Amino acid sequence: MERTRLMLKVFAVIELVLVIVHHGAHALSRDQFPPDFVFGASTSAYQVEGAANEDGRKPSIWDTFSHSGNGIEAHVTLYHWDLPQALEDEYGGWVSRRVVKDFTKYAEVCFREFGDRVKYWTTLNEANVNVVMGYDLGFLQPQRCSPSPITNCSRGNSSTEPYLAAHHMLLAHGSAARVYREKYQRMQHGLIGFNLLLLGFLPQTNSTADIMVVQRVQEFSIGWFMNPFRFGDYPDIMKKNAGSRLPSFTQKESNLVKGSIDFLGINFYYSYYVKDSPGNLQKENRDYLDDVAVKFQCEQTPHNSSLDDWSRVNYLHAYIGSIVDALRSGLNVKGYFVWSFMDTFELVTGYEASYGLYYVDMNDPNLRRQPKLSAEWYSNFLKGKPMDPKITKETEKNASVLSHNPWLHNAT
User: What does the pLDDT read at residue 70?
Assistant: First the structure.
């Protein structure tokens, strides 16, 4: 019960600063990034689209401009947690191997029809959190989990299905990537990749056990997908703790998945403390989270939809500053997209969250949109314009506070 409550909190609206910036606010500028580094702001079709073709609506001059090929380069995600219900009803969606063939066919249609205009393809969004939330805890679609007094799942098995769904997602990506590389990449000159939600993990205490558990939870959340991409197999600790419930790759499947990403997309929202919990491994009918053998404690910040979103400004300054540090250390980072351009329908919290650079007044029948302070900061940063002295002073103060926390720096 306690673990479930904690995990629900973990996936609530949180935006914590994980990074350390060694330089003051005055030192951060767009010029510190390579010319080909891509900045942007993200959104998702389902989460923001209105009734574009309803009630006789016709194209506006903005529609015409947007479709003329000027100002914006599309980075397309093929799967944003929205599997057709028909496939879920027919064979169980991602828990069935049949989904691999159907996803590959769908992906090829997209490559064929839009590949002349799309150069960056992400096959699946946040696959690691998708399988935990949808197939273990059952908090999100398709709401499959073992019987629980907390979640009203009508079907599923939290002990096996998270691993099955993840396995088939890896195979689906590998299959789609093979089709793209064999039939379209040479002609269209695009790249294909994958997206994961990366969490910041900090030991709850300085004990050896808690420090070591950081590595284990990283293997279960990140290595779960990255190890197959790099080595063609799952991490050893996952094999040990999950046993036969973790699917095995055949040699052919291993070859299909290994090396199948041209890039990795990373989403980041929050961090939390972890504590070793070996007793979880003694439970019968363990689920994925029991296999990790860890307790989570998340520090949350209050939701703030104010137009003066100082915490967001500090976050953006610190996070973008950390990318400068990463580039200087030799990491091959290619871009950063803010989530999100405007307030959206969020997958966990609906319209209660306010992630947007632009605030949307949901009580206004015209859904009035207003730029937040973070929009001003981001715009000025990208254009190389001077910052408001008040903003500069605040971000300098925030950077100074963060620089005195060694654990946050070690977590980057």
Answer: 61
pTM over 0.85: no
d(CA 99, CA 110): 17
Cα Rg for the chain, rounded, in angstroms?
22
- Of 6, 119, 14, the residue nearest 69 (C-alpha): 119
Secondary structure of the chain in HEC code, one letter for each residue: CHHHHHHHHHCCCCCCCCCCCCCCHHHCCHHHCCCCCEEEEECCHHHHCCCCCCCCCCCCHHHHHHCCCCCCCCEEEEECCCCCHHHHHHHCHHHCCHHHHHHHHHHHHHHHHHCCCCCEEEEECCHHHHHHHHHCCCCCCCCCCCCCCCCCCCCCCCCCHHHHHHHHHHHHHHHHHHHHHHHCHHHHCCEEEEEEECCEEEECCCCHHHHHHHHHHHHHHHHHHHHHHHHCCCCHHHHHHHHHHCCCCCHHHHHHHCCCCCEEEEECCCEEEEEECHHHHHCCCCCHHHHHCEEEEECCCCCCCCCCCHHHHHHHHHHHHHHHHHHHCCCCCCEEEEECCECCCECCCECCCCCCCEEECCCCCCCCEEECHHHHHHHHHHHCCCCCHHHHHHHHHHHHHHCCCHHHHHCC
In sign, the C-alpha dihedral spanning 76, 77, 83, 87 is: positive
Is 57 a residue whose pLDDT tops 80? no
pLDDT at res. 16: 31
Find the angle CA(335)-CA(340)-CA(346) to the nearest 5 degrees: 130
Q: Residue 256: pLDDT band by 50, 70, 90 thresholds?
A: very high
Higher-pLDDT residue of 235, 384:
235
Task: Supply the pLDDT for residue 403.
Answer: 53
* pLDDT at residue number 399: 62
Cα–Cα distance measured from residue 291 to residue 159, given in angstroms and rounded to the nearest whole number = 9
Residue 302: per-residue pLDDT: 47
User: What average pLDDT is seen over the chain?
Assistant: 84
Residue 76 has pLDDT above 80, yes or no: yes
